[in-house]
Design a protein that fits this description.
about 725 residues, alpha+beta, C8orf32 fold, 4 domains, 4-stranded antiparallel beta sheet, 20 strands, TgpA_N, transmembrane, Bact_TGase-like
Length: about 725
């Protein structure tokens, strides 16, 4: 035992440091009893101490089992004494939680289940690190877990990763310096520690000294992370996290905006119609510096009367032909999404409704799931809007900005609009700046939380410069208000995804991830007109566009050209419609493939992984030796120590047995080596004590030959 302690104490100490570094954030995330943190750390110390002191698994397993169960009892006593009754109770609730997760009754990982798993992982890693000295896999597993905690719980674990990396490097050096003399080992350890300290300091201070380096990393990986977000990866993992970022969807509370968003792909409703467009739900006027709110009064509509909605009540011009839109909600909602223009819904279809005039919101008291609306879209030109003068007689609420708004916001607004003579020109100048010219980046996953002392719009415009629709729409509204242009904040849904249908009967599916916001600007004689400052989005109701596709993510781009103030371009809707019809047909055809093909694929993949795992386990040693020789072709001593460790696992070496004596005994037990292990041992001792460096030609082939012979051998019992 004395020799084992001498050999393993350093590895045990580093292993303990790595496990504690990982475990503390876990306790924080799952909000477990912080007063018991010292106890948890002491249990981790016990795990490592058991691995250092005892080599036999017959001794270690009972000790691990006792400490494991007692730690669980300490955190989850279940109002019982530690014993068989508690164990049975804990087992019953664990099994029940498992079946509840399988059945979908709970969609998160309960804290006690997570604790059971993480505690088992700690014991497994203690054995792996100290007994088997497998530091690479352990390091990757621990760092991967820390990164998962950081990404999905918005934690800054930079120092934990730095500590973990330094500990892993020291672990590697300590493992491979065991057979060197004490003086050289001490010098080497000291130099390595100094180098790691310098590296850690550089890793911490470099992003502070060069802040653009961090932005560069986020920018270069934005596409990948956004694609993963759209595919639902963040949503799936979010189910098992605590204190994670918000999910996309229609929000009732907009008083505090900011922070990252994760896409929720849950379908809300479908709309059968001829073309896509935005769906307004409500508007808000009062900007607080942190978000938007309204003081509103609910007014019931006359009983038995049809619901009539007009987003442009002042408009007296022409309308496009009336169209019937068929709604189908997946689950009943109390709000009504409606398009820009005039809409009428029979009372028999929609039932009793209420209005919130200040928010232009319709409340569905009866919450119907299926109904039809008759819709008329306004038909006016850009030229007519260009003739509208700046209106100053609108309600002061629509030009309100908080007195705490930083002056530089107003200065930016004036600089953007001072060269424009018309109301429309000023509005488009601000829209163009946010959408293209201002170097702002659209991202849901990288959007920052606004510091408590900062204004939401100001922080986005001048500091973070990264955000999604709420950032862009709020910024445009506030910039326009700063120069006296009446504007307000609107929210609802973008057009969604076309999922089936052709011609006048296209079906669009609107999901939580399609929740959107945009600004509206008041034009006298026309009412409130929507604009779209968010990059890669296009609102069909905006007068600056023709028949174009509105995209709902940053990776898509519009396929029709916008009509600008100075020139008008015809959009090629026929080509676009044909292409989209083809894509829909292909999608529907693909969705009809039998599920058993998918099951066959996954079954084949599982079998392939099992076969690969078997051969990897069987030939791991010789493969790792080949990799080591490829990376370190001149490191004979390191390669020999790997062989020696493998041999000692097969035939135990006595405490006071020299290497030559051990090699001689090993060759007697395994005569198939024909002296190769003995020759390598002689070369190692000549290099270690005689300072005679062996030539590569003398040992390279011999190492691989000996490694192949060692690979299939089993431990002598």
């Amino acid at each position: 035992m004395k020799n084992r302690i001498k050999e393993k104490w350093g590895l045990g100490l580093l292993s303990f440091l790595m496990l504690v570094t990982t475990a503390i954030p876990f306790l924080t995330v799952y909000q477990l009893n912080q007063a018991s943190t010292p106890f948890f750390i002491s249990m981790l110390a016990a795990f490592c101490l058991i691995a250092v002191l005892f080599k036999s698994h017959f001794v270690k397993i009972p000790l691990y089992l006792f400490t494991y169960l007692y730690t669980l009892y300490h955190y989850f006593p279940l109002k019982e004494r530690f014993g068989i009754s508690w164990l049975k109770h804990f087992f019953d609730i664990s099994v029940q939680a498992y079946f509840n997760m399988l059945s979908g009754e709970i969609s998160y990982l309960p804290d006690f289940v997570a604790f059971v798993l993480i505690l088992f992982l700690m014991i497994f890693l203690a054995i792996l690190l100290i007994h088997y000295e497998r530091w690479v896999f352990s390091y990757l597993l621990l760092v991967g877990y820390l990164l998962m905690l950081a990404v999905f719980n918005r934690l800054n674990l930079s120092w934990q990763v730095i500590i973990m990396t330094c500990s892993a490097v020291l672990f590697y050096k300590l493992k491979h310096s065991f057979h060197t003399n004490s003086k050289n080992k001490m010098i080497f350890t000291l130099l390595t520690s100094m180098l790691l300290g310098l590296t850690a300091a550089s890793a911490y201070f470099f992003p502070i000294a060069v802040p653009k380096s961090k932005a560069f990393l986020f920018t270069q990986t934005a596409g990948l992370r956004t694609a993963l977000n759209q595919q639902g990866l963040y949503q799936q993992i979010n189910q098992y996290g605590i204190n994670s970022s918000a999910m996309t969807g229609f929000s009732e509370d907009d008083s505090k905006l900011g922070g990252p968003m994760q896409d929720d792909q849950t379908a809300l409703f479908t709309a059968k119609q001829s073309a896509e467009h935005y769906w307004r739900v409500e508007t808000k006027n009062n900007y607080t510096g942190k978000g938007w709110n309204n003081i509103a009064k609910v007014t019931p509509d006359p009983l038995g009367q049809p619901l009539v909605i007009s987003t442009n009540s002042e408009y007296q011009g022409a309308f496009k032909p009336a169209e019937i839109i068929t709604f189908s909600f997946s689950t009943a909602k109390e709000y009504l999404p409606y398009p820009y223009g005039n809409s009428t819904v029979p009372f028999e279809e929609i039932g009793q409704t209420e209005k919130i005039e200040e928010k232009n919101r319709i409340i569905l008291s009866d919450k119907p799931k299926n109904f039809q609306i008759t819709w008329e879209e306004p038909d006016f030109s850009i030229e007519s809007l260009q003739q509208v003068a700046l209106e100053t007689n609108v309600d002061i609420q629509t030009t309100q900005v908080p007195h705490t708004l930083p002056k530089r916001v107003q200065e930016l607004a004036y600089s953007l609009t001072e060269d424009q003579e018309t109301l429309y020109g000023k509005v488009k100048a601000v829209e163009q700046y946010l959408k293209k010219d201002g170097d702002y980046r659209y991202s849901k996953v990288d959007a920052a939380y606004t510091p408590e002392s900062e204004d939401y719009v100001d922080y986005f415009l001048f500091d973070s410069k990264v955000g999604y629709c709420d950032n862009f729409s709020s910024a445009m509204t506030v910039l326009l208000r700063s120069v006296g242009i009446p504007s307000r904040w609107a929210k609802g849904f973008s057009s969604g995804e076309r999922t089936s249908g052709t011609g006048q009967q296209k079906v669009y599916t609107i999901r939580n991830s399609d929740a959107h916001s945009w600004p509206e600007v008041y034009f006298e004689g026309f009412g409130w007109i929507p604009f779209e400052p968010t990059p890669s989005f296009t609102n069909n109701a905006s007068p600056a566009t023709g028949t174009v596709s509105s995209t709902t993510n940053e990776s898509q781009s519009t396929t029709s050209e916008s009509t600008t103030v100075n020139s008008t371009k015809k959009t090629k809707t026929t080509t676009e419609s044909t292409t989209q019809d083809s894509q829909i047909a292909e999608k529907e055809k693909a969705s009809n493939w039998p599920d058993f093909l998918r099951n066959i694929f996954w079954g084949f993949l599982v079998i392939l992984l099992l076969i690969s795992a078997y051969f990897l386990k069987k030939y791991y040693f010789i493969l790792s030796l080949r990799v080591y020789l490829a990376v370190h072709p001149q490191q004979f001593s390191g390669a020999y120590i790997r062989l020696l460790k493998k041999a000692e696992n097969i035939l135990q070496r006595a405490d006071n047995e020299s290497l030559i004596m051990y090699a001689t005994r090993f060759e007697k037990v395994y005569p198939q080596f024909h002296g190769s292990f003995y020759q390598l041992t002689e070369l190692y001792e000549q290099n270690l004590y005689g300072k005679i460096k062996p030539r590569k030609s003398d040992y390279a082939g011999l190492l691989l030959h000996t490694g192949k012979l060692l690979t299939p051998l089993k431990q002598v019992k």
